[in-house]
Amino acid sequence: MTAMRPDALPYLGYGLGLRVEYYEALLASPPQVQWLEVVSENYMVDGGLPLTWLERFRERFPLVMHGVSMSIGSTDPLDQDYLARLAALAQRIEPAWVSDHLCWTGVQGVNLHDLMPLPYTEEALDHVVSRVKHVQDVLKRRILLENVSSYVSFAQSQLTEWEFIAEVAERSDCLILLDINNVHVSATNHGFSSSDYLRGIPVSRVQQFHLAGYEQGERLIIDTHDAPVSNAVWALYVEAVRRFGRVSTMIERDDHFPPWADLLAELDHARALAEPLLRDAA
User: What are the φ and ψ backbone dihedral angles of 188, each rounded to 5 degrees?
Assistant: First the structure.
């Protein structure tokens, strides 16, 4: 595949995940919502109401596509029908970019409906890189891969998580969707430094940030997307802005949906934290 410039994709500003609960509010076009992230699988259909809604939002907002089922790390063959439908949706709505997760979601044809971590080995690295290159050839575009939250680790791992992600990006020429909440969750659960993680990610590869909330369990913290962004994640976001600069940022909320005004206030808080730092760095 012909190498693409890491900085070829646009900066979109501050956005939200498109969720049914906020359809009507979003159509009122609040100025602080500058773009929307859509879950790819919700719209990989031939027609009907989902696509009708999506076309309405496409008229008002820049869109990006975010998938949960590519299973880029699985040992199963890549699902060519899935990739064809993903490519068709991308051609239809012309998103600014397409992303998925650096994980596996199933094996032997069984979808676990969860984002499972990988062993960070050279063998896994070679496997993932070859699959990312194939996906990018099919889609005819660079993709973004997101770091997932994790609750177990593999004794076989030879690399840190951030070394693995950085190598995947460099060798496959893909970009990174850096989930700030997931960095904090995994760092807390596994006892590594979130600051070391950020320093290990190449600046030129980071195209998007995710912000979200988590649940405090008895022994672990769980990435749930059903709570406000925590103070610890806001602090890490500030650190990320200082390192990576102006990166398109969005808040994910998938359950326990707050009043619309509260969600907008969180988005405004992200902007209020980042913009002074970015002005000072200019």
Answer: -65, -45
